[in-house]
UniProtKB/TrEMBL annotation:
Residues 1-15 have a biased composition (Basic residues). Belongs to the bacterial ribosomal protein bL35 family. One of its GO terms (molecular function) is structural constituent of ribosome. It comes from the Bacteria. NCBIfam families: rpmI_bact. GO terms for biological process: translation. Residues 31-46 have a biased composition (Basic and acidic residues). This is Large ribosomal subunit protein bL35. The keyword Ribonucleoprotein applies.
Length: 64
């Protein structure tokens, strides 16, 4: 059987930590930021841990 290919969309959106957690970018900071409060855009900075159910699906797409 051939090797399983990594899902191209998933590899751009998720990354695995050393301990195996799946990290993702927070939603809502890609565009139209001019009218959003600075507090909101700062809150959306950085990565967040994916919820357990979604993490299982993401790991499957990443081939892990």
């Amino acid at each position: 059987m051939p090797k399983m290919k990594t899902h191209s969309g998933a590899k751009k959106r998720f990354k695995l930590t050393g301990s195996g957690k799946v990290m993702h970018r927070k939603a809502g900071k890609m565009h139209l930021n001019e009218h959003k409060p600075s507090t909101r855009t700062r809150r959306l900075d950085g990565d967040a841990v994916l919820s357990p159910g979604d993490a299982a699906k993401a790991k499957k797409l990443l081939g892990k």
